[in-house]
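Lab notebook, design round three. We kept the backbone fixed and only want residue identities now. Task for the bench partner: fill in a sequence for the structure below.
Input structure tokens:
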């Protein structure tokens, strides 16, 4: 939830409360206590719904996109499980084992030319929510040594 959105919701809440306070006084005057409580609850229900709606894309995961965590090295097909400290990725998530990345590729992704860095580890709790990719990506010709 952004600060601007919170401020907006707060203003809506105040507006609704003024409106419903007036209704409350009217209903109280007509001696319908249960109806007054129901009416007073409506603005809170509306705000709760709005909060739920807008807080959706602001969870700790930072939205819906996350690293794929591909299961293998694109060069040699070595298994690289999510907890592997050997996995190296480029900005497009081309994935390589440490051995290929350092020796064959010399730290440069053969697909995009970008640098390769160690892939961060996802905790088991987060893996349960956002599992790693099971789709293997493999270069048909394998990898050739970078010439520079
Ligand atoms: Zn490899
Ligand atoms: Zn790449």
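Proposed sequence:
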């Amino acid at each position: 939830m952004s600060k601007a959105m919170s401020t907006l919701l707060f203003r809506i809440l105040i507006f609704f409360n003024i409106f419903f306070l007036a209704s409350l006084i009217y209903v109280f005057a007509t001696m319908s206590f249960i109806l007054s409580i129901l009416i007073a609850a409506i603005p809170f229900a509306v705000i709760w719904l709005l909060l739920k709606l807008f807080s959706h894309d602001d969870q700790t995961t930072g939205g819906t996109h996350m690293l794929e965590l591909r299961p293998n090295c694109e060069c040699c097909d070595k298994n690289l499980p999510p907890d592997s400290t050997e996995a190296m990725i480029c900005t497009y998530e081309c994935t390589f084992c440490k051995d290929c990345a350092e020796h064959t590729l010399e730290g440069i992704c053969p697909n995009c030319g970008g640098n390769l860095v160690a892939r961060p580890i996802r905790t088991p709790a987060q893996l349960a929510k956002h599992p790693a990719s099971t789709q293997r990506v493999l270069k048909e010709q394998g990898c050739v040594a970078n010439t520079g």
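Keep this in mind before ordering anything: The radius of gyration is 27 Å.
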